[in-house]
Amino acid sequence: MIKTIDMQVMRYINLFARISRVAPKHCFSYNNMIVFVVPKVKVQQAIGDNSVNLKKMSETIGKKIKVVAIPHGLKDAENFVSTIISPIEIKNVEIDGSNLIINATSQSKALLIGRNKRRFEEMQKIVKNYFGKELKIC
């Protein structure tokens, strides 16, 4: 689980920590949205009352913000992936050897892949970093 942190990511992490008073473990971009990964017990604190922290961050950065809990092994893969890609509905997430397979309807598949496979490549990078698996969408 090797994740590199560049200057922009470091700025996002520092801003998030100052606003929410929760230190995120990592953040990444998905679908022109910034996703912060925090411990499960700190998710509500990171979001804030009536999502005030997320709104403040969103206004400052100019992008949508999402907060997800740190996945603990492969058992949290479905929850982690579905939280990141919501509101897109998926049927389920399976783990088959070295592959993480997302089962979705045809319309959801198109949304998950995106134009020029942009979203697929972003999600593939996330799955590789957190679970060490290759991504397949069926």
Describe the structure.
The chain has 138 residues and is of the alpha/beta class. It folds into 2 domains: 7-69, GMP Synthetase, Chain A, domain 3 (2-Layer Sandwich); 90-137, no CATH class. It has 6 helices and 6 strands. The strands form 2 sheets. Strands 1-2-3 form a 3-stranded mixed sheet, sandwiched between helices. A 3-stranded mixed sheet has the order 4-5-6. The protein is globular. The protein starts with 6 loop residues before the first helix and ends with a strand.
Enumerate the spans where pLDDT stays under 50 for 5 or more consecutive residues: none
Order of helices and strands: HEEHHEHEEHHE
User: What is the structural class?
Assistant: alpha/beta
Distance between the termini: 25 Å
Summarize this structure briefly.
With 138 residues, the protein is of the alpha/beta class. It has helices spanning 7-20, 43-47, 52-61, 77-85, 106-113, 118-131, and strands at 26-30, 33-38, 64-69, 92-96, 99-103, 134-137.
Key attributes of the depicted protein:
138 residues; 3-stranded mixed beta sheet; 6 helices; globular; 6 strands; GMP Synthetase, Chain A, domain 3; alpha/beta
Describe the protein's topology.
Blueprint (H helix, E strand, L loop, with lengths): L6 H14 L5 E5 L2 E6 L4 H5 L4 H10 L2 E6 L7 H9 L6 E5 L2 E5 L2 H8 L4 H14 L2 E4 L1
Parallel strand pairs: 2-3, 5-6
Antiparallel strand pairs: 1-2, 4-5
Helix pairs in contact: 1-3
